Amino acid sequence: MKIQILVMSLFLSNAAIAQQEEVKLWDVVPGSITNDSFKEEKQYEGDQIRGYNKVSEPTLTIFTPEDGTSNGTAVVICPGGGYSHLAINKEGYKLGAWFAEQGITGFVLKNRLPSDAIMQDKTIGPLQDVQRAIRYVRENALKFGIDTTKVGVMGFSAGGHLAVTASTLYEEAVYDSKEGVSAKPDFSMLIYPVVSMKKGVTHQGSRDNLLGKNPDEATVTKYSGEEQVTAATPKTFLIHATDDKAVPVENSIHYYLALKNAGVPVEMHIYEDGGHGFGMGRSATADSWPAALSLWLKKHSLITN
Q1: pLDDT band at residue 305 under the 50/70/90 scheme
Q2: HEC-encoded secondary structure of the chain
């Protein structure tokens, strides 16, 4: 598949990464509806892009390690935002830069957000994009020095739900794949994720945006990650805060138990405080999670030093 390459400069608060490569995911977006009034919106914090709304052209922004430091691992990063917007700086670009410092190539996904205005089936639109992103990484493994058996996915909040969906529904044929490579992640990292679509546990806004106001029970079950775990589900690292008022900690707990019961390697850290949407940290006990993640990555030989 031919991909148009763009070039952009990103100026981040913790790391200045210039001339990062941004690529379009699709020549023709599958299942799309042409809507000239649907225009992408950007949010800024100072001169930095903070987030996006109304994405219709999905992209990957690629953060590459310095020459000679790549360890062959890659991560597709899915920012959160309730399936209504993308918090792409704090839950995307900052992680891409952090991974690059660890020798990991980071691919920040700017995925479409479920919308009847631009999608024939909004429940599969984001999954189409994340599957295509994972396949793009494997297709271009030689170019980026990536080991095709070390391609992971990371997600925050609703982006965590997208990462869970990628990790459990990777065999779903949501578009006509011609790449000839797998969409299955080799590992997943889920940070305060929405996992379940079940009432009383889910984040209602994420559920409404993805599935609509009155989804049937079969659809709710299909998109509840804890119900889709098998022994083949990728090994997983989970982070959540007990005092999360937006996405109940039970999302991570239920997924952890499902993985444990299926014999899937899993590690979970539940912190006393942190709330929701803490990104890489904001003065709470949850701020130590990046260090815990580094140890987990080393344990599984995804970081080699």
Answers
A1: low
A2: CCCCEEEEEEECCCCEEEEEEEEECCCCCCCECCCCCCCCEEEEECCEEEEEECCCCCEEEEECCCCCCCCCCEEEEECCCCCCCECCHHHHHHHHHHHHHCCCEEEEEECCCCCCCCECCCCCHHHHHHHHHHHHHHHCHHHHCCCCCCEEEEEECHHHHHHHHHHHCCCCCCCCCCCCCCCCCCEEEEECCCCCCCCCCCCHHHHHHHHCCCCCHHHHHHCCHHHCCCCCCCEEEEEEECCCCCCCCHHHHHHHHHHHHHCCCEEEEEECCCCCCCCCCCCCHHHHHHHHHHHHHHHCCCCCC
